[in-house]
Amino acid sequence: MFQLLRGFLLPAAACDGNRDGDSRYANLFRKLDLNEDGRVDIAELQTGLRAMGIPLGKEAEEKIFKAGDTNQDGQLDFEEFMQYLKEHEKKMKLAFKSLDKNNDGIP
Ligand SMILES: [Ca+2]
Ligand SMILES: [Ca+2]
Questions:
Q1: Where are the domains of the chain?
Q2: In angstroms, how far apart are the furthest CA atoms of the chain?
Q3: Arch. (CATH architecture) of 2-97
Q4: Boundaries of each EF-hand domain copy (predicted)?
């Protein structure tokens, strides 16, 4: 989990502009979209998380996927993906902050 938070949040702390945020999401999305069809399905999400060293378990992965898939077509498009991350990044940042006791950006 820390690995994800680190790679994901530290660049954001350095430059907090919206455009940078979007390209960060786009990079992550491209990484997850293994067959490059512009959508991430649950298998790609699972594979991606595992490749990043974060096997959350089937149940948690399905929960994330369902929460993100707002039109329930079984795929996450970029918009859904970005929306999900935007909503959850705040929470992740808070969690990260509480771990980072001396505020140097490293838990
Ligand atoms: Ca795909
Ligand atoms: Ca969808």
A1: 2-97
A2: 43
A3: Orthogonal Bundle (1.10)
A4: 20-55, 56-91
Q: pLDDT class for 104, splitting at 50, 70, 90? A: confident
User: What spacing in Å lies between the alpha carbon of 27 and ligand 1's midpoint?
Assistant: 14
Residue bearing tokens 């490059």: 36
How much is the mean pLDDT over the chain?
Answer: 81
Ligand 2 mean position, distance from CA 87 (Å): 16
pLDDT in tens, 26-77: 999 999 999 999 999 999 999 998 888 888 899 999 999 999 999 999 999 9
Q: Which ligand is nearest to the CA of 38?
A: 1
**Distances from the Cα of 103 to the Cαs of 27, 50, 106, in angstroms?**
26, 29, 7
